[in-house]
Amino acid sequence: xxxxxxxxxxxxxxxxxxxxxxxxxxxxxxxxxxxxxxxxxxxxxxxxxxxxxxxxxxxxxxxxxxxxxxxxxxxxxxxxxxxxxxxxxxxxxxxxxxxxxxxxxxxxxxxxxxxxxxxxxxxxxxxxxxxxxxxxxxxxxxxxxxxxxxxxxxxxxxxxxxxxxxxxxxxxxxxxxxxxxxxxxxxxxxxxxxxxxxxxxxxxxxxxxxxxxxxxxxxxxxxxxxxxxxxxxxxxxxxxxxxxxxxxxxxxxxxxxxxxxxxxxxxxxxxxxxxxxxxxxxxxxxxxxx
Length: 290
What we know:
The protein has 290 residues and is of the alpha/beta class. Helices cover 30% and strands 15% of the residues.
C-alpha cells in the first residue's frame, strides 16, 4: 500500500522533505484504475507515474509498518483511504481497516461507488465517512471527462445521503469548464441533502488526457471557496447570489464585512489538509492547510 509523501514524512517513515502538521493520514490502495477519467494520474490510459495521485507522490510501504507508525503517533485525528478502482484494492483496504479500527480514529474512504450496496459495505466495515467524488458538475462534461451518467450519480448520492445522513462527502474539481454558477448551484444542492463538499482546483499533470488544460484562475477559485463557506454555514443561498452573463459570481447575497480565513482552507472531511495537492511549494496556494 501507499502513503502520501507528507503522511509518510509525518509518520517518520521517510526523513526528507518538510515536516508538516498532518492531522489526517492519507493512504492509497491499488493503481491503474479500470476507469479512465481524463484528469486523473491513475486513469486506465494515463501515462503518468504509478506513484502519483494528482501532483503528489505516494511512496510504497509494507502495511504493517504503516499500522505501527500510526499506533505510535498520538497526533493522528483521521485516516483517509484513497481507493483506486483496481483488482485487489478493495480487499487490501478492508484488511487495513480491520487492523486500524481498534485505534478508534475516525476513518474516511474515498471510493468510486456504483451501487447503494457498495456504499453500505464500506460503512459496515467501520468507516465514519464516505467520499464519493462527483468532480465534474456539468452533465456533458461529466460524460466526457469522467464517464457514466451524471443524473444516475446524483440519484445515488441522494439515496446514500438519506440512509447515512451527514456521513457522505462529495468532491468538485474547479476548472474543468463549468460556470461558477453551475458549481455554486451544485454546492447548494449537496448541502440541502446533507452531503458535505470538498473543493479541489484542477491540476494539470503530465501523462493525463488533460495535461495541457489550464488550472483555474486563483480569483475564480477564491470566489467558489467563499461561496462554499457561505452556503455551508447557512449565511447565504445560491438563489440569492448574482451572476454575470458568463456565469461568474458578482454578488453573494450577503454583506461581506470581513472575509474569514477559514473560507480558504482545505474543505472536505473534518481535519482534512491535503498539503500541496493542488500547488507546488513556494507558489501561491489554492487551499490553505495549516
